[in-house]
Amino acid sequence: MLRYLRLHRIFISQYLKRLMEYKTDFLLGAIGLLIAQALGVLFLNIIFSAIPALEGYTFEEVLFIYGFSLIPKSLDHLFFDNLWMVGYSIIRKGDFDKYLTRPINSLYYVIVERFCVDAFGEMLTCVLLLIYSVPKLSLPFYWYTIPLLLVVIVFATMIYTSLKIITSAISFWTKASGHITHMLYMTNDFAKYPVTIYNKAVQAVITYVIPFAFTAYFPASYFLTGRDPLFCIGGTVVAGTALFLLAVFVWNRGLKAYESAGS
Amino acid sequence: MENMIYVENLRKEFKKIIKEPGLKGSFKALFKPHREIVTAVDGISFEVRKGEILGFIGPNGAGKSTVIKMLTGILTPTSGVCRINGKIPQDDRKNYVREIGVVFGQRTQLWWDLALRETYAVLKEIYEVPDDRYHQRMAFLNEVLELDSFITSPVRTLSLGQRMRADIAASLLHSPKVLFLDEPTIGLDVVVKENIRSAIRKINEEEGTTVILTTHDLSDIELLCERIVMIDKGRKVFDGGLSKLKGEFGQMRTFSFELQNAEDIRKLGYHDHFKLSDDDLSLSVSGKSVSVKFNTDKVKVEDIISYTLSSVHIKDMEIRDVEIEEIIKRLYKREVSV
């Protein structure tokens, strides 16, 4: 475990060195990112100024849920972004061979190889939204609120990452699955708003099938109201654990089906 | 001597979707796929002794890479067994790969965007090589593969020859017991090839590393390998030393000589005189030099010589054994069966 953390640090530093290697690209990328995020915040402002309240949620509460949804999303984006490449090209081109000739877990290796600094944009938006909304809400606060928050963040991130692992692993059989990952990933947009605004079918899907509701709305509503911790927090833990176990299972089955590419 | 590698009845099948040509065919295959099973490796068995350099050859598409990928734990065999140093690669891949080094000549394993030494620093961590061992090892690899002049350059700026040396060094950093080299001399010039061959020989001699080498360059085989395994269409067609190969298939000899008068060539009619086809006798002429390649099963050496001497005046003459390349070319073309 310690060895893996140490390796993770090394991979991140390698990645940062790589970014610095191409200075112009790095600078332009950083500027582009800032512009994109500023526009994103501006756009949110427009939406929320048109809809001050939703289904009994105040403007600040909606902002809080939206901001909360970005915590696991940006963490997953920051640390586990390379999974996209698995479905789009790594397996199809046979580049996965490289990960299999090293004495480390292949899933771990492929995940830590890239570190996605783009995620800092989402983090910035997230922090701005929370800084704006939290002081205006009277959130219930106990001694266990912070530890509980940390637990929720870990398991909510696991929901994101596990879904990406499962959909990427499909390409061990189909050679490419990037679009499947993309399709599934896009449904996370539903999780940014209170699920009660959707019809029953959509609610059921994002709660029980692709449980993105547990990455944002349910835990956030617990922190807003202090109600129903068993379902809101427990649900996140259960969904995160179950999906992660499924992800590891699918991945390991996929490894056996890996066919490489001709050379 | 004990066996390092033990392969028995190894098979690998791939499912393949057969498509009719064009966009229309692709659409059709999307809805009504026509699946076919392709056997890439069809029951191969062989053994490799500890410290041996084995040449693993065969024409393109014979299944060489597929075998190497099963031996290195990348692919899972459909059936059959491979055991390397007593371990089955697929059983405990993570521990198994600590004992092997792998180089795929067509694909680098170096960190493309960073200085070469960064790659070694990361590999040191991945393989948990202790500091003192690492320095010692780097000094050795430096000496053998001459990495010094480019170790601080980003990998993307290296020439192919430098990159290949760097890749081989990367595969040896953790002192593997077995080294798999898949076309390590592909696309390299003669000098670099020689450099890489001597490095392989040195590592094999000094550390007793078992080496499996696939190549299309038969000089690699002649200069490095005591033994070759040849496969074709997923099956083994030859297993043995070079001398055995020559003994079994080396009925061909080459008789070369120089004519005193270039026009005399018209006086020589080997095919008609001996009634042989092109397969059993072939002639190549450039100016005054002539070489006749013939099958000693069909015609005796002395008959060829006496016919030549009685027909024309010659200067130099020489009789050579067939080159390994010629035998292998014939095997690939399936002119010789085993």
Quick structural gist:
Chain A is 72% helix and 0% strand.
Strand segment count of chain A: 0
**Are there runs of chain B of 5+ residues with pLDDT below 50, and where?**
none
Tally of alpha and pi helices of chain B? 12
Q: Report the average pLDDT across residues of chain B.
A: 88
Spans where pLDDT lies below 50 across 5 or more residues of chain A: none
What is the average of the pLDDT values of chain A?
89
The geometry of chain A reads as globular
- Going by CATH, the architecture of the largest domain in chain B would be 3-Layer(aba) Sandwich
Oligomerization state: heterodimer
List the secondary-structure elements of chain B in sequence, H or E. EHEEHEHEHHHEHEHEEHEHEEHEH
Strand order of the largest sheet of chain B: 5-6-7-3-8-9
Rg of chain A = 19 Å
The tally of strands of chain B reads 13
Strand content of chain A: under 5%
Q: Element order, helices and strands of chain A?
A: HHHHHHHHHHHHH
Overall body shape of chain B: globular
Q: Please estimate the helix content of chain A.
A: over 70%
H/I helix tally of chain A: 13
Kindly estimate the percentage of residues of chain B that lie in beta strands according to DSSP. 25-35%
The largest pleated sheet of chain B is described as: 6 strands, mixed
Provide a descriptive summary of the structure in words.
- The complex is a heterodimer of chains A (263) and B (338).
- Chain A has 263 residues and is an all-alpha fold.
- Chain A has a domain at 83-113 and 142-257.
- Helices cover 72% and strands 0% of the residues of chain A.
- Chain A contains 13 helices and no strands.
- Chain A has helices at 2-21, 23-50, 59-79, 83-90, 97-100, 106-112, 119-133, 145-169, 171-174, 178-186, 200-209, 217-225, 229-257.
- The mean pLDDT of chain A is 89.
- Chain B has 338 residues and is an alpha/beta fold.
- Chain B has 2 domains: 3-9 and 47-246, Rossmann fold (3-Layer(aba) Sandwich); 251-321, Alpha-Beta Plaits.
- Chain B is 35% helix and 30% strand.
- Chain B contains 12 helices and 13 strands.
- A 6-stranded mixed β-sheet of chain B has the order 5-6-7-3-8-9, sandwiched between helices. Chain B has a 4-stranded antiparallel β-sheet with strand order 11-12-10-13, covered by helices on one side.
- In chain B, a hairpin with a 2-residue loop joins strand 8 (227-232) and strand 9.
- In chain B, helix 5 (131-145) packs antiparallel against helix 6.
- Chain B is globular, with a radius of gyration of 25 Å.
- The two termini of chain B are 27 Å apart.
- The A-B interface holds A 3, 6-7, 10-11, 14, 17-18, 21-22, 94-95, 97-98, 100-105, 255-260, 262-263 and B 14, 61, 65, 69, 72-76, 90, 93-95, 97-98, 100, 102, 104, 106-107, 109, 111, 113-114, 118, 122, 125-128, 154, 182.
